[in-house]
Design a protein that fits this description.
The structure is a homodimer.
Chain A: H1 3-7, E1 19-31, E2 54-56, E3 62-66, H2 73-90, E4 95-97, H3 121-134, E5 144-150, H4 152-159, H5 168-194, H6 238-250, E6 264-267, H7 272-278, E7 282-288, H8 300-315, H9 322-337, H10 348-365, H11 370-380, H12 386-397, H13 399-416, H14 429-441, E8 444-449, E9 454-459, E10 462-467, H15 478-484, H16 486-495, E11 503-506, H17 509-514, H18 516-519, E12 524-528, E13 538-540, H19 546-559, E14 563-567, E15 572-579, E16 582-590, E17 593-595, H20 602-609, E18 615-616, E19 623-624, H21 630-638, E20 652-654, E21 666-669, H22 676-688, E22 693-700, E23 714-719, H23 725-728, H24 738-746
Parallel strand pairs in A: 18-19
Antiparallel strand pairs in A: 1-3, 1-4, 1-5, 2-3, 5-7, 6-7, 8-9, 9-10, 11-14, 12-13, 12-14, 15-16, 15-22, 16-21, 17-20, 22-23
Helix pairs in contact in A: 2-14, 5-8, 5-9, 6-7, 10-11, 12-13, 14-24
Pathway (chains A, B): Sulfur metabolism; glutathione biosynthesis; glutathione from L-cysteine and L-glutamate: step 1/2; Sulfur metabolism; glutathione biosynthesis; glutathione from L-cysteine and L-glutamate: step 2/2
Enzyme class (chains A, B): ligase
EC number (chains A, B): 6.3.2.2, 6.3.2.3
Chain lengths: 754, 754
């Protein structure tokens, strides 16, 4: 079987880069001073019993972040970024993630290292066993596990290029066995490039058996967390591998199969016997150190290089004697792991040969050379390797200080824009918040279409689709359509006994004039049917003269052929967010404004207010930047001011008529202030519309006075797919995590704690 | 209480024409020869036990059509038109409605007149009693019952103009009592204008006590269906009215209250005692004959006049002695009813006074004069009255022949455009069909927004909202959104194991070129991401050379920046309509075409095919007119033809590439031909998408061969809100009443028979 030739087949080439990726990343939790914490796993995170994303490894302080399987590098890293954001923001405020593979200084008394407090007793027992056999300290090392699977079409097309192996399953297993052997042989190169554990912190080593000087990777050397030397397993064939593994367990050299810590693990099922029955599905590379220079411990180029390396391992011939080939790899690995990071490697020549072959492969297979060329330079310039860079930093300020600084930097990054979820930050804020909460609660979250804000959630076999944050299966098809039609909404609400503004639409001045007596004695508003920024709107608040009424009509008819004359409801408008028969947030929106301090000009006050990290532009932040454009300046002029005026201390200067958040308005949460009677009205009105989720706008003269009669409120409109981010991150008042309410609605069985 | 003055108040005037209307109309069922039928009430119509629209009156052959309450004249007549369409199309093909108030020739043996076969035994018993007391023949007379209510705001504003009557309820009752007395006094004018029963047919009269010559209204005279003369009821006050009525019942002059046949009935509840407790809510005018010149027995101007007349009755003073005032009216009524239709009325002078006062009222209240002026001319020109016109027709061909001709004309009208529902014909065809079926089944159907196709249905206290014919509460909010996203749809279907076309989207020629080997050996299609009329699309059906592939790409990239290369599924496309887990229709659409006869040119064949009443334009008919525009002529040219070519007999000439119905394509129902296995696939795929209603498009090479493997079908797309009219009225094959399936889905408790 000439795989090299098979890979060059026309039908194979288009699929060469097809692959699936998954990353697990461990991290120790430390305080902001870089000291290992003693707190429990974050309580705001969903149950570890099923959590697909946020787990603990050996110790209670040792986070294990797990991405879902992704079809490309961008996606797998996006998930890892997002899981990082969620994890960091779910931890106590004084905790962060230690960015190194080597643990921070460990407690003098090993008993103070808490084994992960898992629910299943067998999981705890196993960890206790490990602690006994290997010592707790070694278990505190962290790293990246990199899961890699060749694309389905790639494997199929390769399979069709040959006749030797009859079944696709056997063929796949042969491919992965070759990869595994070659990886074991050549893995020293990965250590050379990405090894990043040159030094230990206090109390990692039990005795004096430790490196004399910095190395490339303590973790990958015999000083790392490795099996006893008597555990030997052959990679000649899957059958042999399996036999050896079983024998090691039978003879008590391993407690169970999973105690075998190969740098590459063959994956395909829960147990090794599953491999025998169904073949290998993918491989797990376990010897990647955390790259502290990236907050998620790995970056795009590293993953891309690993993918190319996996292709190279398929491409390049292997040694005839499998066991010897693997054993040679072990020797090289040990040597390179323990080399000084700044020194040239012993295997320079072999490394150069590998890179040359990789480039040749790239040329033949029409792959990108640049990446390979870049890493090739690291071979001759060891100072470019990660271990070398860590060492350099250590020389400057000490490894612990350096790691603490980096950790703090990543910590700050996670809180900088609390409304953003890294990896998904181009999506709508509501969807980002929903993804955040899903990841936090351990609900599987897959983005099906980024630009369409289409998400699939999963818990067990319960799937839910969500679009735009709150369009779900819990609402009916017709109810949002009903809310979209303002006429029908008013009709339905009025018939159900709710107060809505009474009004009429006119298409001629004459017709509208005739209706004058209907409105003359009450507060009412004249407005063009479609209007922007209040143009053409006139509000009359008491007895209105016919002449004024006609002037109002004329102004409105200038803007539109249809004019609405409608009862004007006196009071303030509030947005009630109703979900599943409950009001979970009430918001007051006020027009863009600044409050004077007697010193700064309006312009300066605006600049200052715009510093708020919650303010951004184009709906990419919960609040919008306040503009000082034509409309704002006009508004100032009407108040006898300019942008250079200096408002008195405490004087609130409004810059807009309209209270839209999109034009710089402030959002103020008042959920706890509103009398319950109005919440009941909101809930009942939404029920009358048949909706589960709605943002309903009520006019209320006094939110503190309980509802008594019809004049105490009016319903302006009901919105389907109501904005949630303004409630989650208000300008003032308490944020309301509405996306969690959405998850509660979709997954009642999870009993999510609010 | 000076009502005349109150009506002139500024605040009253805008509401003067605010009112609510309801019409009941009786009709005898006859065969197309105008003979009374003996068949039962139509079986396709929902149960008479609850049917709000289509009932029977006294006899089994006597339809009673009932409109819902409407806020304006247009709406009430629209409902009556629609109910007519439904009733006519629900009757056996050889039956129609007799357009006259006077029945057609009655059977010699009165026993042959079947009393309505109602479910409730008490209803049958009551009719048997009536037959015994009044004779069956008189019960066979039909008419219009006109229900009228002054607008709520109108009554309120009038109420506020006075202090005498304390409660609104009592005030309202006083208004209606005045109306009733005045109507009883002046009703002769309505008989003069709209009386339309000048002659009887065979066997209406039992003896020789009958008019000697034609009259204005047999029905409204003592020859009509009236109480015995000893039944006298006072209208002095509601209390008095009630007392008298109870006394008449107690003394056995009436069997029960409802046997009192006043020309105006006071309404407000089930029983007269309800009137005492809650006051009068509206009045029912019962002395309007069927106007045979309108197919629904009444027209807009008549109703408008009646509304003005009701205002006039409020406006004009009444006689001091109520009983005398009413008794005078009875005398006048009897006289005018029995006048010869072509002769001047005895009460000409009084009539002129009424019209003069009405015009004065119109001037003062700013109402339209024109309508009043028109009817005023009838007073001096009795030949304009309806009775006179019937008489004129009778002279020409005999009343029976004339009525039969008119009945046949209305019959033809109802079948002319079977897909239209008169009164709602500007709405979408699917919504018209849904309204038709709702009315037929006796489901309350209210159009909330005509242009938005928004309907509210009601059965008992079960309300449902429907938009665009099949957007309902039975589907979830998310599922149509999922179907709207073609990428997500394909993803979900593929993951659920269905075959969807595999493909990729490219944004550069280079990128697309690289994928060549993926497609080279299979059938595939290259298309611009958005495309119209197949421009830029190339289909490759076997092994494809790279050069051809590139040409295809170039063509597609000319049309769009994004190009899709996708597996081409071989076979024919079929639309499966799935509802509630069942395929209820399968449709084949074929491009616009004509079939030659060896004689006619393409142009003539097209003209001929376009005669089909199912063809129309702008989606106002189930099929579209075939055009002979640029594209069609180009298509002919490619086949070496022009519009003047004469295709051979049986030769099918296609005029379009695409099979859209909107460009003249034919729709062919093949529901019964498709193998069940494909229906199962359609049902399962729609279930995977979580939808209750979907139109799913499958490519199937052979619909007769049961599904065996993946190559036997492919799913192209799933449509939410799928078109229904093309299935209901196909070009060929059996129509499928899908709107009835929608009602079955919404109202399972009704167990609608299909």
């Amino acid at each position: 079987m000439n795989i090299k030739k098979m890979m060059q087949a026309d039908k194979v080439i288009p699929y060469l880069l097809q692959a699936r990726f998954g990353i697990e990343k461990e991290s120790q939790r430390v305080n902001l001073a870089g000291e290992l914490v003693t707190s429990d796993h974050p309580k705001t995170v969903g149950d570890r019993l099923f959590h697909p994303y946020i787990q603990t490894d050996f110790a209670e302080t040792q986070l294990e972040l797990v991405t879902p399987v992704a079809e490309n590098i961008t996606d797998v890293l996006a998930y890892l970024e997002a899981i990082h954001d969620v994890t960091q923001r779910s931890m106590p405020e004084n905790e962060m993630m230690w960015p190194l593979s080597m643990p921070p200084a460990l407690p003098e008394n090993e008993d103070e290292i808490d084994i992960a407090k898992l629910f299943r007793h067998e999981d705890v027992l196993y960890r206790r066993f490990l602690a006994r056999v290997y010592g707790k300290r070694k278990q505190m090392v962290s790293g990246i596990h990199f899961n890699f699977e060749y694309g389905e079409d790639l494997v199929k097309q390769l399979y069709r290029q040959q006749n030797e192996v009859v079944t696709l399953e056997k063929f796949k297993t042969e491919l992965y066995m070759k990869i595994a052997r070659n990886y074991l042989h050549y893995r020293w190169l990965v250590i050379y490039l990405f090894g990043a554990s040159p030094l230990s912190e206090a109390r990692y080593f039990y005795d004096d058996d430790r490196p004399d000087e910095p190395v490339r990777s303590i973790r990958s050397s015999r000083f790392g967390y490795v099996n006893k030397p008597d555990v030997v397993v052959s990679y000649e064939s899957l059958e042999k591998y399996n036999e050896d593994l079983l024998e090691n367990v039978e003879r008590g050299r391993l407690s169970e199969e999973k105690e075998y810590y190969a740098p590459v693990r063959l994956r395909g099922g829960e147990r090794v016997s599953d491999l025998i029955n169904h073949g290998i599905r993918y491989v797990e590379l376990r010897n990647i150190d955390l790259n502290p220079f990236d907050r998620i411990g790995i970056n795009y180029q590293e993953v891309e290089f690993l993918q190319y390396f996996m292709l190279y391992l398929l491409w390049t011939d292997e040694g005839e004697n499998a066991d010897k080939w693997v054993a040679e790899g072990a020797v090289r690995n040990e040597e390179v792991s323990l080399e000084h990071p700044l020194k040239e490697t012993t295997y320079l020549a072999e490394g150069q040969k590998i890179f040359a072959e990789m480039l040749e492969m790239a040329d033949i297979l029409d792959l990108d050379r640049q990446l390979i060329e870049e890493f090739a330079t690291w071979l001759e310039q060891p100072e470019k390797t990660i271990a070398a860079r860590v060492l350099t930093a250590d020389k400057k300020e000490g490894q612990a200080a350096f790691a603490t600084d980096l950790g703090k930097k990543y910590y700050d990054q996670a809180y900088e824009k609390p409304y953003q979820l890294t990896g998904f930050s181009e999506m709508e804020l509501s969807t980002q918040a929903l993804l955040f909460d899903a990841i936090q609660q351990g609900i599987g979250a897959e983005v099906l279409d980024r630009s369409d804000q289409f998400v699939r959630l999963q818990h067990g076999d319960h799937y839910e689709y969500v679009k735009n944050g709150n369009m779900t299966s819990r609402d009916t098809y017709i109810s949002p359509l009903l809310m979209a039609n303002k006429t029908v909404t008013k009709m339905v609400l009025a018939q159900a006994g709710f107060r809505v503004p009474q009004g009429e639409t006119f298409s001629s001045l004459m017709e509208a004039r005739k209706a004058y007596p209907k409105f003359a004695q009450q507060a009412f508003v004249i407005k063009p049917k479609s209007t922007n920024y209040g143009i053409g709107i006139t509000i009359f608040k008491g007895e209105t003269a016919l002449a004024d009424y006609q002037t109002g009509l004329a102004l409105a008819f200038k803007e539109d052929q249809e004019v609405i004359v409608e009862e004007f409801m006196v009071g303030t408008e509030y947005r009630f967010f109703v979900i599943d028969g409950e009001v979970t947030a009430v918001l007051l929106r006020i027009p863009a404004n600044v409050v004077g301090d007697g010193k700064k000009t309006v312009k300066e006050l605006v600049t200052e207010k715009n510093q708020d990290p919650l303010r951004g532009s184009d709906h990419r932040a919960p609040l919008e930047i306040i503009q000082l454009g034509e409309l704002e300046q006009l508004m100032l002029k009407e108040q006898g001011m300019t942008i250079q005026s200096v408002p008195a201390e405490g004087q609130q200067v409004f810059l807009r008529e309209n209270s839209n958040i999109s034009t710089g308005g402030d959002s103020i949460d008042i959920t706890d202030e509103v009398d319950e009677s109005y919440k009941k009205i909101a809930v009942d009105a939404v029920a009358a519309l048949g909706a589960k989720i709605s943002g309903i706008d009520l006019i209320i003269p006094d939110i503190h006075k309980p509802y008594e009669n019809e004049q105490d409120y009016g319903i302006i409109e009901a919105n389907f797919n109501p904005a949630m981010h303004m409630h989650i991150f208000p300008y003032a008042g308490q944020g309301r995590r509405l996306t969690q309410d959405v998850l509660t609605l979709l997954y009642p069985e999870m009993q999510i704690k609010r």
